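User: Structure please.
Assistant: Input sequence and predicted structure:
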Amino acid sequence: MTTLPTLSGMKPSTEKPLHLVGFQVGSEEYCFEILKVREIIRMTPVTPVPGAPGHLEGIINLRGRIVPVIDFRKRFRITGECAVDEADKVIVVTTTGNRTVGFIVDSLSQVMKLPAKDLSPAPAGASGCDGEAIRGVGNVGDRLVIVLDLEKMFSDDELTALTGVS
């Protein structure tokens, strides 16, 4: 069977769409792959850890499991209001090696499917460890979302140190 070209002369994409969980931090929208998200909880009291990196807000007890909680704004040096309040959410994710980490975000936006063809590469100015965490920028309706690669958000040493707290 022959695949017919599309109107633009290109073959249709056979890549599976990305399934994402969107969230707001400040005025920007970000996404994680839905398969990495373990659960989403309301903001809960966080126990500070002395000597921890500045972006580590502290730890929480999540049904008997100690989970490090990272302030997303501080981790990515997002300027603006940084105060954590009870309206915030914690997205609990699982990384390589079954390590669990929570991210404090302002709010959730939606669960979405993003066709692979609608994902553009990360901007040229996004370099370094933080820039490598940006998988790309997606067009969702009339807005842009930043798609993050959870596995590249932390070095192995940093992730071990964070989860070693637990």
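The first strand starts at residue 18 and ends at 25.
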